[in-house]
Inverse folding.
């Protein structure tokens, strides 16, 4: 195949001239970012928003839904080793395209368990008011261990496995392709735009899926026929699956152009003409002809102090970030008394716009630094320390509420103007629907726990109750009692914005400068190796550690026949635990970055331009595109080939096709 074919857009016989304009960096960047947006929408948006509906639809326990969410990370981790092993042997862009095809198929597969599960069935409406007659409900023995009961869960796991396998090339090969196809000076900016796209995706998914969850989700049944009045009824099931199907179909279309990209773009040589070689001296090695090339590279990375310090820093940051992403809405609910909807709205309203702005600024700063490793590390360290200071926002909280059955025992009810026996004859379902007695400023776990009597005109999801035994003179209203902490809310939001800014601004700088540490031929191995550490020792255990911290600070567990769920936490202890963990991670990360900068030694090989060092891939193309390029000539020896670059302004076809064996 000729050099012209190596940069042509298309496949096989289909290479029309009208589409060759796409074989340039900007079209590639747009298409790749659109795929990152869809992947972020599916994985970080739709799964998070739909998880409660999936639990309800297929009667999953919290443990089973956790397995469903974690399956993605497991299969991404499994794919990292083969991706690193074959990085130099495949067309990485086509691998990304094929992967996104698999993501689209996996996303569409969620419709299968929705179909095989049959019509949605519900039990008797649960009462949240006082019912005095009859015994307490008991759990019945079911056949939950049968294969049919787990069939839908297995199909859901299969869907997530497809998504994990398909998405793995996107954030490994995708990052290295951005660095490979454009100037190193613009890597930070390109990574920032890439991260912005992956941040916008979940935001769009939150908005779109939030709307679709208000629509009835089972086309074979009607909510009215099942006695369900509306979305306020806990038995209501939204159209959770439509977002997965739509994103899956769109992903199939956006992935297809990636299958037609060549290994090298037409303008790559021109864009990379002035790249500077900044590889760490101990990592500037070439194992291309070695029998055990892969293992040699991995062993070299393990032995390099700079490389391992950067990877360890990114690993503990991944642990922290994954915990924040998973549990920050719950933390806002606990510290400031937000509803789950408002907590998600505040989180998205802060993180998305701040992440976009900070990532863009970080990309511009990376360009100013020109990917110099030590200044970049000091910059990341500085903002890491600022982030540690801003994490003190986790200590801001509203006053602790008085909650009957949690921190107010029955013996203390007379202090709030109620009898100890005001609700003892009520048979309350294990349902958490907090209400407030305006008379005593006492919060109850549900209208039933407040002794509110049942009546025909009261439906589930009501906002006010009367005739309540524990609050006889006033109305009982839905929700927690007002903690009167507007000042604390404003303080928290301001500091949370600063915290988010300090975190996001460092990502493009750290990522782009880290790629300069290793030889250009080892970028994919370094990226996959780093992601392997971040997944196994960072992201996956991060959610577990944060979940443990949250669970040990639980003050009230809502238990039913198959699972239990914490509904009320010790806000003070939880805030301090998150704060101490954040400080520990940020300070440890700062020490690791300082060590990485200290051990870093830039290669002293006589090669100013990396594009000339890769004559076989980039330089020959750049020579043909301009008269003002550098001529790269090889000086051969029995053991190695030293590439020297000299400025030369006029060339002929003879110079392009032949290498000289003498120095100028």
């Amino acid at each position: 195949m000729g050099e012209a074919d190596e940069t042509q857009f298309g496949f096989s016989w289909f290479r029309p001239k009208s589409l060759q304009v796409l074989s340039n960096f900007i079209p590639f960047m747009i298409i790749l970012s659109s795929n990152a947006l869809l992947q972020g929408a599916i994985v970080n948006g739709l799964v998070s928003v739909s998880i409660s509906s999936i639990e309800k639809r297929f009667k999953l326990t919290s443990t089973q839904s956790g397995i469903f969410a974690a399956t993605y990370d497991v299969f991404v981790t499994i794919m990292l080793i083969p991706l690193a092993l074959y990085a130099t042997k495949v067309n990485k862009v086509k691998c990304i395209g094929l992967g996104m095809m698999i993501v689209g198929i996996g996303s569409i597969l969620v419709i299968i368990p929705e179909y095989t599960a049959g019509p949605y069935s519900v039990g008797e409406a649960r009462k949240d008011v006082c019912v005095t007659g009859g015994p307490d409900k008991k759990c019945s023995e079911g056949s939950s261990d049968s294969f049919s009961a787990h069939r839908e869960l297995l199909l859901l796991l299969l869907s997530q496995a497809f998504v994990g396998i398909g998405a793995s090339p996107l954030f490994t090969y995708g990052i290295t392709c951005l660095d490979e196809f454009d100037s190193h000076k613009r890597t930070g900016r390109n990574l920032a735009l890439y991260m912005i796209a992956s941040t916008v995706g979940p935001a769009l998914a939150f908005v779109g899926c939030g709307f679709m969850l208000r629509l009835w989700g089972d086309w074979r049944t009607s909510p009215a026929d099942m006695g369900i009045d509306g979305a306020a009824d806990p038995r209501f099931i939204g159209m959770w699956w439509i977002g997965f199907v739509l994103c899956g179909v769109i992903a199939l279309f956006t992935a297809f152009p990636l299958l037609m990209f060549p290994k090298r773009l037409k303008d790559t040589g021109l864009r990379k003409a002035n790249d500077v070689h900044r590889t760490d001296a101990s990592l500037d090695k070439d194992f291309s002809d070695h029998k055990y090339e892969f293992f040699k590279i991995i062993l070299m990375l393990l032995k390099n102090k700079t490389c391992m310090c950067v990877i360890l820093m990114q690993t503990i940051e991944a642990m922290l970030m994954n915990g924040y992403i998973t549990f920050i809405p719950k933390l806002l609910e606990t510290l400031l008394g937000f509803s789950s909807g408002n907590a998600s709205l505040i989180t998205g309203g802060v993180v998305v716009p701040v992440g976009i702005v900070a990532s863009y600024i970080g990309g511009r700063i990376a360009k100013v630094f020109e990917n110099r490793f030590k200044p970049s590390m000091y910059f990341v360290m500085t903002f890491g320390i600022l982030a540690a200071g801003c994490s003190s926002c986790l200590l801001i909280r509203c006053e602790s509420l008085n909650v009957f059955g949690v921190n107010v025992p029955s013996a203390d009810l007379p202090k709030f103007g109620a009898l100890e026996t005001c609700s003892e004859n009520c048979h309350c379902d294990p349902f958490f629907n907090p209400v407030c007695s305006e008379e005593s400023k006492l919060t109850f776990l549900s209208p039933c726990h407040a002794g509110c009597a049942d009546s025909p005109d009261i439906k589930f999801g009501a906002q006010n109750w009367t005739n309540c035994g524990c609050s006889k003179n006033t109305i009982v209203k839905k929700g927690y009692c007002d903690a009167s902490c507007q000042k604390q809310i404003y303080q928290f939001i301001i500091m949370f914005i600063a915290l988010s800014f300090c975190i996001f601004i460092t990502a493009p700088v750290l990522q782009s400068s880290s790629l300069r540490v290793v030889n250009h031929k080892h970028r994919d191995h370094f990226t996959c190796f780093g992601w392997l550490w971040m997944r196994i020792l960072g992201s996956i255990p991060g959610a577990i550690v944060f979940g443990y911290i949250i669970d040990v600070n639980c003050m009230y567990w809502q238990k039913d026949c198959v699972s239990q769920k914490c509904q009320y936490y010790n806000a003070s202890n939880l805030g301090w635990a998150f704060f101490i963990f954040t400080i520990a991670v940020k300070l440890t990360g700062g020490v690791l970055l300082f060590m990485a900068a200290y051990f870093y030694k830039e290669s002293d090989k006589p090669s100013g331009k990396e594009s000339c060092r890769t004559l076989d891939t980039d330089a020959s193309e750049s020579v043909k595109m301009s008269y003002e390029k550098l001529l790269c000539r090889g000086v051969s020896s029995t053991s190695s080939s030293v590439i020297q670059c000299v400025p030369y302004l006029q060339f002929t076809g003879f110079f392009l096709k032949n290498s000289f064996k003498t120095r100028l």
